[in-house]
User: Fold NUDIX hydrolase from Defluviimonas salinarum.
Amino acid sequence: MPTSDADRRDWRPIATVDTVILTLDEGSLKVLVHRRQRAPFAGAWALPGGYIRPGEDDSAEEAALRVLRTKAGLPNFYIEQLATYSGPARDPRGWSISVAFLALVPRDLLPDLAEDVSLAAVDGLPDLAFDHGRIVRDAVARLRGKGAYSSLPAALLPESFTLPELQRAYEIVLGDHIDASSFRRKVLDLDMIEETGEAQAGVSKRPAKLYRLTGAARTFNRTLGAA
Amino acid sequence: MPTSDADRRDWRPIATVDTVILTLDEGSLKVLVHRRQRAPFAGAWALPGGYIRPGEDDSAEEAALRVLRTKAGLPNFYIEQLATYSGPARDPRGWSISVAFLALVPRDLLPDLAEDVSLAAVDGLPDLAFDHGRIVRDAVARLRGKGAYSSLPAALLPESFTLPELQRAYEIVLGDHIDASSFRRKVLDLDMIEETGEAQAGVSKRPAKLYRLTGAARTFNRTLGAA
Assistant:
C-alpha cells in the first residue's frame, strides 16, 4: 500500500511538452504544426509535442528539443518557456501537465518541411488538437506584447536584412502600420542594428543596405521568456 | 506490457507545485518559507509546495492554492505562474517537474504565521530545500525586472498608503534610492494612484494623504506573469 503521494504513481499526471515555432512566411506570422498520426486527435493538426521521458530527457526543455528533432526534423533552436498548461480535461488520456516552449525562427532555417508538417497563419488558425489553439494564442500575445518594446521581431528575420524588411516584420508582428522615417530613426538610435557593410544582392540601381542585430540587441532578444 | 508512453506510469515524472509569496516586512523584501516536517530535507526551510493531486486539483494553480491553504494557512491569493522547473536531480525522490507560482502579498494579509512558517529576507536567504533558492532568485529577478516599469511594487502595500510608503516600496524592490520629487510627479502623471480622501491616522500636525491604486493600475498590476 502506498505510504505517501510520491509512491502513488497512479496519482501522477501525464507530463508532456509542446512547442510553438513562430516564423514569418509569405508576409504572415505562422506557426509550425504537424498532422497527428495516432489517437487522440488522429489526423488533426497539432503543435509538435510529446511525453517527457525521464529515462532520456534531462529537463522539460531537453524533451522539447527532442520532440522538435524527432517529430519535425528540426535542429536545436533557442527555445524559452511560454507557460505550463494543466488539468483533467485538456488531454483525453487523463490529468495532464504540459510545459509549452516558444521559439522565433527565421523562415530560412525551416527549409524542408516534412510531409506531415505545415505552417499555419496564426490569424485564421485551423482547429488544433488538445488546447493547442489556446497555447498558440498565448504565444502570439506574448510576442505582440513584447515586440513593440524589443528587438524580438528581428529574430524572425534572416541574419542580415534591409530596413524595409525589418519594418515589415514589426508591422506583421504588431498587426499595425508603422511610419518609415520614425521607425528608421528609432531602430538606429537604439543601437539595435548595425550595417553589415553589404548591400542587398540582385536588385536594381540603388540596392538597399543590409543590417544585422548588434550584439547587445541579440542578448536582449533572449528575453522572450518571462524572467 | 505497456503499449505507449501514456501507459508507462513508471515513466511519469513526479509532478509538484511550489509557491513564492513575496512581501515587504520591516523594510525588507521577504519570502514566506516553512520548515519541512518530512524527508527529503526534513527540518530544512522550503517554499510551501506539494504534489499535484489529480483526484483533487483542477489545475496546477488549484494545487498551489491548496498547498498555500493547508501548509501555510493562507487564504486564496492572486497567484501567477513564475516558471516550471524540471529534471532528474532537483528532487531526490526522482525525476520531477514543479510548476512555481508567484504572489505579491501585503504584509497585513499575512497576520498570524503558523509556528513552522517564517518570512526570510530575500537578500541573505538561508539555504532552502530542493532548488528553492534558485526559484526565489528567479521570482525576485522577475519582480525587480518588471517593478521599475509598473505598479507592481504597490501590490506589496496595504490597500491605502502614503506617497513616502509607496516610494519606499519601490526603493526596496529596486534596491536603489529614488528622488522624492520626480517620483511623486511620475506616479501622479501616470494616473497610477488616486487620493482616497483620507489622511494617515494617528500622526502629528500634518498627516500625509492616503492614496490607493487606480482601477487601471490594478488591472495592469496583473501582468506579473509572462504574457
Chain A touches chain B at residues 5-6, 9-15, 50-55, 58-61, 81-84, 86-88, 93-95, 97, 99, 138, 141-142, 145, 225-227 (CB under 8 Å). Confidence is low (pLDDT under 50) at residues 222-227 of chain A.
